[in-house]
Write a structure and sequence with these properties.
Radius of gyration: 21 Å
CATH topology of the domain at 64-347: Serine Threonine Protein Phosphatase 5, Tetratricopeptide repeat
Oligomer: single chain
Shape: globular
Number of helices: 20
Distance between the termini: 30 Å
Order of helices and strands: HHHHHHHHHHHHHHHHHHHH
Largest sheet: none
CATH superfamily of the domain at 64-347: Tetratricopeptide repeat domain
Helix content: 55-70%
Strand content: under 5%
Structural class: mainly alpha
Number of strands: 0
CATH class of the domain at 64-347: Mainly Alpha
Length: 421
């Protein structure tokens, strides 16, 4: 599913609408002893050598967010038939899962809201909450159905329009997203509608206009929540990256992390920025306290690899084990991350291309597009990227990394009469 920013930056009004990832692990080729990892990550149960062994880090009970969830849980237990109490608790679970990069919390949220969804006539707020959870899990079709059902009942539901607009952008349906942003303005107000349309422009060859619009939104940051401020700063960082303005992008990433220093999506997005700038040592310090997050752990593995660290193989092995655990649970959240793992750490471009294409047919954010192009080049299969190249040609995405990749693939296709960019 998908956070998020991965890059899925949600348009959040009542609940965040983020998503990431999807799940099968692949072992590296055994023909290269330096790259090989166990096909089956676990040979036998681990038995701690002492009672003091640290098995896993769990959220601290002193964490304000954890305390809030505990309080909200107690409130719902005391009033189990209270829909507002359920909505508040489900929202807290989703938000915390987004911040720490742990999809388990989406499951907790769904368990809370399920009794109302099972009702023959579910309340609108329950439908929107469930749609948000499904989007988080990358169950986009089901999420869209619930949002459309919501809007049939309540055509002016602001959160439903926001989530639907985000979903359309994630899946590359920019024409529909534009119409949805109009509805966002009508239902949620000019400020959020402006952010919606500003974000959309960054995908359709209007990055400079997107930057100008989002800067207008940024100047009104004192009128909105801190999470909204951080979201806008993150959008500005991404738009600056599309314009190749690295100092401006970094400035906005740092501003966003000043507002929400432990937000997993922000941390991972900034880590990707640092990796692209060949600054892996900074990734290690940035994510040192976030190893529980699978998305963050992958970036740590990539940083270790870039530094030619002796720890690289250990990180690869652990990452493969995590993907295997997700597969065994039937998870379908981490397609983008798996493709990148196969390409950059397992050096298996064929598998990476297959995974990247599967993922791209579900979500079409710039990173999803980039991975298809990189894998197609690495695999020597430019024809596999024809559909993606056509998508780029149609929507004119500006990106200083993606554009050269597209030109290189197009050049390889020309002699055979393939698509051109």
């Amino acid at each position: 599913m998908a956070t998020v920013r991965s890059r899925i930056w949600a348009l959040a009004l009542l609940l965040p609408a983020f998503g990431l990832w999807g799940g099968t692990a692949y072992a590296a080729s055994t023909t290269d002893a330096n790259l090989a990892i166990p096909a089956a990550p676990f040979k036998a149960p681990y038995v701690p050598s002492s009672d003091s062994a640290n098995l896993q880090e769990v959220p601290s009970t002193s964490d304000p967010a954890v305390l809030e969830m505990k309080t909200l849980r107690s409130q719902l237990d005391a009033t189990p038939h209270s829909l507002p109490a359920a909505i508040r608790l489900a929202g807290a679970y989703v938000d915390y899962g987004r911040q720490v990069g742990d999809a388990h919390y989406a499951g907790y949220a769904e368990a809370v809201i399920t009794p109302w969804i099972a009702n023959p006539h579910p309340p609108v707020s329950a439908l929107v909450t469930e749609a948000t959870i499904l989007q988080y899990r990358h169950q986009f079709t089901e999420s869209r159905q619930l949002l459309q059902r919501t809007l049939t009942i309540d055509p002016a539901n602001a959160q439903a329009w926001l989530t639907l607009a985000t979903l359309d952008m994630v899946q590359g349906d920019y024409e529909t997203a534009g119409k949805d942003c109009v509805q966002v303005t009508r239902s949620a107000g000019f400020q959020i509608g402006l952010a919606c349309s500003g974000n959309l422009r960054s995908y359709v060859g209007q990055a400079r206009q997107s930057l100008a619009i989002l800067q207008q939104v940024e100047t009104r940051g004192d009128q909105v929540s801190t999470s909204y401020q951080a979201w806008v700063e993150g959008l500005l960082a991404e738009v600056a990256e599309r314009l190749g303005d690295w100092p401006l992008a970094e400035s906005h990433y740092r501003k966003a992390l000043t507002i929400l220093p432990h937000d997993n999506f922000l941390l991972v997005a900034y880590a990707d920025f640092l990796l692209d700038r060949a600054r892996p040592k900074e990734v290690l310090s940035l994510l040192a306290d976030h190893t529980q997050s699978d998305t963050a752990f992958l970036r740590l593995a990539l940083a270790q690899s870039a530094l030619h660290s002796t720890k690289t193989q250990r990180y690869i092995w652990i990452m493969a084990a995590r993907f295997e655990a997700l597969r065994l649970r039937g998870s379908a959240l981490f397609g983008r991350e798996q493709a990148r793992f196969a390409l950059e750490l397992q050096h298996d471009p064929q598998t990476a291309l297959s995974l990247a294409l599967q993922n791209w047919h579900v979500q079409r954010e710039p990173w999803d597009t980039r991975l298809v192009l990189e894998a197609a080049l690495a695999a020597g299969q430019p024809q596999a990227a024809v559909e993606v190249l056509g998508f780029l040609q149609k929507h004119k995405l500006q990106d200083p990394i993606i554009e050269p990749l597209a030109r290189e693939l197009s050049a390889k296709l020309k002699p055979t009469g393939g698509a051109t960019q």
